[in-house]
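chain below, 699 aa
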Amino acid sequence: METPTPPPDDAVEALTPDDPAATAPASVETEAAVVAAAVAKAAAALPAKPAMNVHRADGAPPAPPAGPVTAAGSSGSTLGTMKIYSTEAKRPRRRWPKVVGIVAGVLLLAGLAGGGYAFWYLQGTVTAITQTSDKQQQVAESGLAVALPDQPITALVIGEDRRPGQGPGRSDTMMMVRIDPRTKSIAMMSFPRDLIVNVPGYGRRPINEAYELGQEPLALATIKELTGIQINYLIPLDFRAFQRIVATFGGVWLPVDRRYYNSNDGTAERNYMSINIQPGYQLLNGANSLAFARYRHTDSDLVRLARQQTFVREFKKRVDRWGFASRIIELISIMRDNLKILGSNKKPADARTLLEYGRLIGSIPRGNTFQVRLDDISSSPTNPGKLEASPQAVQTAVDQFLNPDMQSGQAIANRDVGKDTKAKVVKPTYDAAKIGIEVRNGNGTPAAAADAAWQLVENGWKSAHSAGDSLVQYLHTTVYYDGSTKGAKEAATAIAEAFGSDSDTKVLDAPAIAEMQQNGINVREPVVVVVGKTYTGDLAPPKVAILPPKEEAQISRDPTRDIEIWRDAQRKSGIPLMMPTVLYVGAQTRDPLFSNQPPARVYKTGGHRAVYVTYSADAYDQVFGVQAIEWDAPPILDGPSATRDYKGRKLLLYFNGPSLQRVGWKQNGISYWLENSLTGRIPNSAMIAMAKSFKPVTR
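prediction:
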């Protein structure tokens, strides 16, 4: 497809964060002020928040369940799902990007953490958000699993592609989001709209047809069958709410990888969304954020999904920095008219549950957000223009989604960049494969001990085995240890952590042994696990790094290749610059789609002077860039996965699982970083070699 010629880029561009079309109406602010006054007047009279109770999947008081219960996000789970709705678009060809629902969910839940009292006074708003009169949505609620306390929750975001005057459209895209309180992590997994899957009752079709054929219930059933994951919440939201949310937070700082431009003149080649965004790190308003997230016409759907996940990741940083407690009333007022959060009809989400989720999201470190990609996708041999993925590829992505790799970043940094000289390496005093562990059933659920023992074996505790039932019922899982056995206490602590934050560790003393041996089975191992009622059948993954093979960097070394480009940028920007003297093999200093676009952009954003240089090894999947900005603390450099010293520079390393997404550093008030392609296609070895090669630009 021929790309349009964009207007010339200005040498210095001042961007404004707020889009008039994305601003909340004055009536919202007025109402917010009224509600805030009522809250301030009565806040002191509110009762203290009680502790969250343990819930059964059927909503009944705690009692021995009738069958095994598993955690949200695992196969066979009984947890619930999140869903967000908004009014239908009135204009042609507008779609619901899945990222919008994610943003709304994160915003609302995180916002609740800062304004708990205000939230209680907006109980009517919460009811409107969490209840629906739509028949299809009510049917979908019956397919959602109940969310259990202290366990992971999974949300499915569905964006609908509908045009005015037509019936239900196809889903634009689908994204699952998993929030895990045990590992304090957020994982995202997306599905290409043209991916061929089994749609229950209709056979193999593109995944985006599920919504058109059966709306929310069938879309939900399709995702559950494809992944084997139970969903707790379902979230859709339209583009107008998206823009208003972004405007509420004053825009979003985003790394734009290349030039995005189209002027829709009605011709066949350009008859898609108009867009005009320059490359480089910048503060985007609501309209431009939406355009960036939705765009897909000169790259692939996989790149668009990665772009949307990038938006979610950076938006969370914006929320973290905002300090949004002072605007929670306004935010919830906006949400009332633009979103639904639908959980299981067995136990709908209430105000306190949402508040707890908000606190959880706010506590998750900024670096613990993971983007899971469905790899090994190929063109469908039987459906031209569509995509296929093997069951093995889907299962690999699901495994990464359920157990995001939080350990390999540090290990790769140690192996490929340099040891962390400040880190204390403490070897465990036990051998997980050899220490004796027996598991007893303390919750009354058949086979709970055998299931827990099997999971422990899968997590590396090779000697774990079932030892029958406990005659004493336990609410929380308790791990006993023999204090006289070397490493038993440390092993018990690690096992208890895998069972969740509500588990306990205790000394295996004489009274404990006597209690356990009431079933006639003697205690024979130094570690004894008694499974409690809060065990859901899902253990947190072991903290073991799985490293990809180390590979030789495919690079070319030429210190003078781009020297004139960098000198010109340094002169125009007025800031001292550093440039790479090594590049990924085959990389060209250019925008891959706009030959008239200068590879180096000199601009100003948010009052900061900046330079961005675009590199590419292909048209869209290996576009990467180098950013310099006169700003000592840009949000994108918050929360590195690891830091390493290299020749007087402190390298900030940002991993997405085992893939290195960004390498940054700061020098003399200037922040620099090398940004991988949206899909992370530049190998770690090349990223590290390029980052190490940066030298000051000579005059």
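The domain at 78-249+316-402 is CATH 3.30.420.590 (Nucleotidyltransferase; domain 5). The first helix runs from residue 26 to 42.
thats it, cya
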